[in-house]
Design goal:
This protein is α/β, with parallel strands linked by helices and 364 residues long. It is globular, with a radius of gyration of 22 Å. Helix 1 (13-24) runs parallel beside helix 7. Strands 1, 2, 3, 4, 5 and 18 form a six-stranded mixed beta sheet that branches. A five-stranded parallel beta sheet has the order 6-15-7-8-11, with helices on one face. A three-stranded antiparallel beta sheet has the order 12-13-14, with no helix packed on it. The chain has two domains: 2-136 and 286-362, FAD/NAD(P)-binding domain (3-Layer(bba) Sandwich); 146-201 and 237-282, FAD/NAD(P)-binding domain, CATH 3.50.50.60. It has eight helices and 18 strands. Helix 1 links the parallel strand 1 and strand 2 (33-36). The protein has helices spanning 13-24, 78-92, 177-186, 209-224, 232-236, 242-250, 329-347, 355-363; strands spanning 2-9, 33-36, 103-110, 113-118, 121-130, 152-155, 169-173, 191-196, 202-203, 238-239, 255-257, 261-262, 266-268, 274-276, 279-282, 307-308, 311-312, 318-320. The structure holds flavin-adenine dinucleotide. Residues 9-15, 36-39, 44-45, 49, 58-61, 102-103, 131-133, 135-136, 178, 289, 292, 322, 327-329, 332 line the site of flavin-adenine dinucleotide (FAD). This is NAD(P)/FAD-dependent oxidoreductase. Keywords: Oxidoreductase. InterPro entries: Auxin_biosynth/cation_transpt (IPR050982), FAD/NAD-bd_sf (IPR036188).
Length: 364
């Protein structure tokens, strides 16, 4: 058993940003903090992004604090660019990420400590910064008949490029950016059909800061109420980039309503329409990868974990960074800074900020 002040689970944008601010707060790797990550190399989830998601096609990858990514070839896969940047970053700030280390459970350890159980032993920590992202929990909704489909089904997490679908009919499900990017690529080599639950909303305007803030605020309200977060991207609408405008003009982004059933040969609607298909791609997003926190019983009746800022309301030793409103590269940076500020206060014995209003109101 190793004792540590702070355990950081996950070494993506959120975990590395937290590591940077922990170092700035005077904690060192070893007794101060340990970053644990189960992926084989640096890069967080970016190391798994499909090779055709080039750096130029990513929305925007914000710099980690203290060291810019610098110039990068927009034609190179984001997976390579970001993994290389994160590797340099870990070295520059001596973050000493333990990998591959899989955190299987976090439970109460007594004496104010949390036990972080892994396949490489247990760490006993006074605080936990959870930065496990969503990539490990691809979400596929259930539709009747799904198990009878004779073609291939895959989630975007398993997509490696359009070439293997040449000449096929591919049904792409989902209204997000990933669906749009995949449709544009697949339409070059395959026949495609796009289905979404709600009509997609394309935004012609540039994504400015005010509007980004408003989207983040909506996700924040949900997690404050203990509801599962929506992705920030799901409330922003789809950017009508030049590539998107051209694809719309070619009819690639003509959308049909969601089908009602899956048949062995394809998909079907309750009004009697059917469509044969070889492949169904589920571009239906991800959920927060938080199963290892289950022993702490942090979930609310609404199904989510209530957080104030990044602090879990039910257990102020636990912070979720890169969760809900901070699930973007810029949000993850800010969350790392804010979480470390609160954890420093916690380690110094200051009362949890969440406890203050109640005490004040009882006193007053
Ligand atoms: C296809 C796609 C494209 C995106 N493009 C953009 C974009 O252009 N700009 C943007 O701002 N955002 C983008 N996002 C959102 C993106 O998820 C965030 O921006 C950011 O990369 C998430 O960082 P993170 O640190 O929270 O999580 P991740 O990068 O997912 O890192 C989590 C880390 O935790 C580790 N981990 C998970 N569970 C465990 C465990 N139990 N034990 C140990 N380690 C564990 C994983 O191995 C991983 O390294 C995109 C998301 C997707 C899916």
């Amino acid at each position: 058993m190793r004792e540590v002040e702070v355990a950081v689970v996950g070494a993506g944008q959120a975990g590395l940003s937290a590591g940077y601010f922990l170092r700035r707060a005077g904690l060192g790797p070893g007794a101060g903090f340990a970053v644990l990550d189960h992926s084989p190399g640096p890069g967080g989830a970016w190391q798994y992004r499909w090779p055709s998601l080039t750096y130029g096609k990513a929305h925007r990858v914000h710099d980690l604090p203290g060291m810019p990514l610098g110039e990068a070839d927009p034609g190179r896969p984001s997976a390579e660019v970001v993994a290389g940047y994160f590797a340099r970053y870990e070295r520059a700030f001596d973050l000493r990420v333990h990998r591959p280390v899989d955190v299987t459970a976090v439970r109460e350890g007594g004496g104010g400590r949390l036990l972080v159980e892994t396949d490489a032993g247990t760490w006993a920590a006074r605080a936990l910064l959870n930065a496990t992202g969503t990539w490990d929990r691809p979400f596929v909704p259930y539709y009747p008949g799904q198990e009878t489909f004779l073609g291939r089904q895959l989630h975007t997490a398993g997509y490696r490029g359009a070439a293997e679908f040449a000449g096929r009919h591919v049904v792409v499900v989902g209204g997000g950016t990933s669906a749009v990017q995949l449709l544009i690529e697949l339409a070059e080599v395959a026949r495609t059909t796009w289905v979404t639950r709600r009509p997609p909303v394309f935004r012609d305007m540039a994504f400015d800061e005010d509007w980004g803030r408003a989207a983040v605020a909506r996700v924040e309200q949900r997690v404050r109420r203990g509801l599962p977060p929506q992705s920030v991207v799901s409330v922003t609408g789809l950017a009508a980039t030049e590539a998107v405008r051209q694809a719309r003009a070619r009819g690639v982004l003509d959308r049909r309503p969601m089908f009602d059933r899956i048949t062995p040969q394809g998909v079907a609607w309750d009004d009697g329409r059917t469509l044969e298909a070889d492949v169904i791609v589920w571009a239906t997003g991800f959920r927060a990868a938080l199963d290892h926190l289950a022993p702490l019983r942090l979930r609310e009746p609404g199904g989510g974990i209530r957080v104030e800022g990044t602090r879990v309301v039910k257990d102020p030793r636990v912070h979720l960074v890169g969760y809900g409103p901070s699930a973007s590269t810029i949000g993850a940076n800010r969350a790392g800074r804010a979480a470390v500020r609160e954890i420093r206060a916690l380690l110094a014995g200051a009362p949890s900020p969440g406890a203050q209003p109640r005490e004040a109101s009882l006193a007053g």
